[in-house]
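Lecture notes, unit on protein representations.

Consider one protein chain, 406 amino acids long.
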Amino acid sequence: MDYQSNPSKKPKSTVSAKLDSILVKGDFDRPLFVIIMLLLCFGSVMVFSASYAYAYSSRDDSSFYIRKQLLYALIGVLAMWGISKIHYKVIQLFTPVIYGISIALLVLVLVIGTSEDEAKRWMNLGFISFQPSEIAKFALVLMLAWFAHKYRKRIMERDGTLATYTKSAVWSTVIPMLFVILTCGLVVLENHLSGTIILLCIGVSVIWAGGGKKSVYLIGLLAILLVVYIILFQQDFLKELLPAYQWKRIDMWLNPEAYDVQDDTWQTVQGLIAVGSGGIFGRGIGNSLQKHLFISQPQNDFIFAVLCEELGLVGAAALIILYMVFFIRCLQIARRAPDVFSTLTVIGIASHVMIQALLNMMVVTSIIPNTGIALPFFSYGGSSLTFLMVEMGIVLSISRFSRIQK
């Protein structure tokens, strides 16, 4: 019935119609929201506990870091809520632009970026500093998901006269890997090894979930085994291949006794002392000894060591379980998502959080060489936390369309 025949039913304005196509109606996944907020609150408590001694020593203000962290947490929550209200199809539409901007920033940081030690990875805009590689993490996820959705028919080819489909290695694996190689290659030029590893793992996860040829990954497995062999048995070759500071980190991990524990391996050793001294139940929240200038900047990459010291094995296990519950809930949302793009986006973002958390814990416990990897929701950092909450907003937006039985 049109407006002429029913004057009481007015047609929607153009602006209202556009808003209806952009904004999402319906509720997001509440269990996931609760998990995210638990991680954020838990992380904020640990930032304050880990940072107040260092903040008082370096800034003469014990609340310096927690105030900034809470400010960015608030900004992040608002950003998450705002993004969750936007229809994920809008995000899908602008994905090539988002990825293009991320690549442009990765190029730009090589020209005008600021350096941290040997790595040139920071962009300073005056009012905010950030690492373009943080944007590249979710931009790569979106791009791979967008590609798998757009070219799904080419990825799944009909097998001759049979009513079956086979996967095209070129469209399912080779072309998507070019996006991964481009992104990782630019991050390598920043001398940002940890960022490169995380991006590579995220990319492989999304390609695998999107239908990548499983036989192709045998090559990747062989490559990993080759790298392990070179690290363990061909160290002279590796020393010539890597920059001096990267080789030093690997050599300190392999031969810690050859380095000065008061200087080179100080951070690693103090972190291990913190982890070991926590025992089963820990010293109690706020009672860490190693955060008192033994672990340098304990609110950053080594915050997990402080958590282990204060909350013990029980606290560390609780955090790991919380991450696992987060990942499982994301997989449930991905399984119920309406299309390929939304499914792979959720899988990619969930993989990002889990991969980065796992690598951080492995660094702190010296399972892998010491390199700068933040613990999601926990490590101090305003821009990285904000970008992470934007990712959570995207997942919550998609969760509104999950086919959950009511």
